[in-house]
Amino acid sequence: MANTSEIHNGLTINYNGDIYSVVKFQHVKPGKGNAFVRTKLKSLTSGKVIDNTFAAGHKIDVVRVERRKYQFLYKDESGYHFMNNETYDQISLDEKLLDRADLMKEGSNVEVLFHAEKEIPLQIEQPQYVVLEVTYTEPGVKGDTATNTLKPATVETGATVRVPLFINTGEKIKIDTRSGEYLERAKT
Predict the structure, then answer these.
(1) For burial by CB atoms within 10 Å, which of 1, 2, 73, 123 has the most?
(2) Against a cut of 0.90, is the pTM above it?
(3) How much helix, strand and coil, in percent to the nearest 5, is found in the chain?
(4) In this structure, are strands 109-115 and 160-164 parallel, antiparallel, or unpaired?
(5) What mean pLDDT is predicted for residues 62-90?
(6) Beta carbons within 8 Å of 8's beta carbon, 6+ residues apart
């Protein structure tokens, strides 16, 4: 058992019978009254995000998790298949453990969060950015760059991303995996 002074981003706790990861927190000491900790918690089983306030000194049940490196192999009707980079063991996981699964390219490396005591996968974390090739987009109109206009583009994984007008088919772009937004052209 720990208390609220040990809360930090990424901490995994057992709360109300579910496992949550701390996404955001803020220690608050008002002028009157007792201190408290405002948190934003994300359920690792359902993906639901909740806001919660803990009183200062409140006991929290910390869950021990392990991060293991896996390689994404392929997707089929039974789920997403990954291989452990050290032991070469393969596992199949459900899509609900993934955020932005449509940006995951075969052969890419991810980290899988495991509940250390129960050996069950909790969440799959992709790298912060991915570089993907644009397979289709409408050509931009020459001279139409006065406004910050975006157009849809399909990338090699099948995902659709909004890109600036100057991006053409065949170019590689850098995409943020948390938001799915275009960042920049990939440097070659």
Answers:
(1) 123
(2) no
(3) 5, 55, 40
(4) unpaired
(5) 91
(6) 22, 25
Q: What is the 3-state secondary structure (H, E, C) of 151-188?
A: EEEEECCCCEEEEECCCCCCCEEEEECCCCCEEEECCC
Scanning the structure block, which residue is given the tokens 């975006």?
150
- Joined tokens for residue 59: 């006991």
CATH of the domain at 178: 2.40.50.140
Of 40, 62, 84, the residue that ends a domain is 62
Q: pLDDT value at position 52? A: 92
Provide the edge-to-edge strand list for the sheet that holds 36-43.
2-3, 59-62, 12-15, 18-28, 36-43, 49-55
Here the tokens at position 8 are: 């930090």
